[in-house]
Amino acid sequence: MTIPQTPAPARSKRLAPHRLNLAEFVRSPYRLTPEMGATLDDVLAPDYLVHVAERLKAGDKLEIMPDCMTWYAEALVVDATRLSARIALLVGPIVIDAGEQVLADDAFEARWITPAVRFGVRRKADGAYVVKNLATKADAERWIADRVGLRAVASTEEPRP
After folding, report:
1. In this prediction, what percent of the chain has a pLDDT beyond 90?
2. pTM of this prediction?
3. What is the phi/psi pair of residue 10, to 5°?
């Protein structure tokens, strides 16, 4: 008489030790700051990253936030060539509500500095120059409009529930 054999219990799959790595060793995290006026759709277009695509590789993570800090998103590089990168949106866009919004004109001003330095952009809050050596006042005003736009500042109100 033969005794039926019971199959050995299936061994659960286990992760091989070499498959657990610090993320910093296998991918690079980047901060992507779109220029004023660029939308998230612009950023997601493969040719948007044409000037930096050669630095990217599949698996790299991109934190995306414009200078005005009004929104935030995260993306993963799916594929990268020398002239383009395909990215997939992971998180966002998340609208950042920092409170009161002030216009750049309220925070910065275009000013003449000296004949050697020419024009610059002065921060009104502390009088510091954030950029110098601009040829004309129009260049300084354009710098403010292009790079600063709408700037968020902390609200003095209590947060709403």
Report:
1. 12
2. 0.52
3. -65, 130
Domains located in the chain, CATH noted:
26-95 (2.40.240), 101-152 (no CATH)
pLDDT in tens, 98-124: 544 445 556 788 888 888 888 888 888
Q: Which residue has the tokens 């209590």?
A: 158
What angle is formed at CA 105 by the lines to CA 137 and CA 48, rounded to 5 degrees? Answer: 80
Cβ partners under 8 Å of residue 46, min gap 6: 84, 85, 86
Measure Cα distances from 48 to 23, 35, 41, 45, 128 in Å. Answer: 25, 11, 10, 5, 33
Quick one: pLDDT at residue 21?
A: 86
Per-residue DSSP letter, 53: G
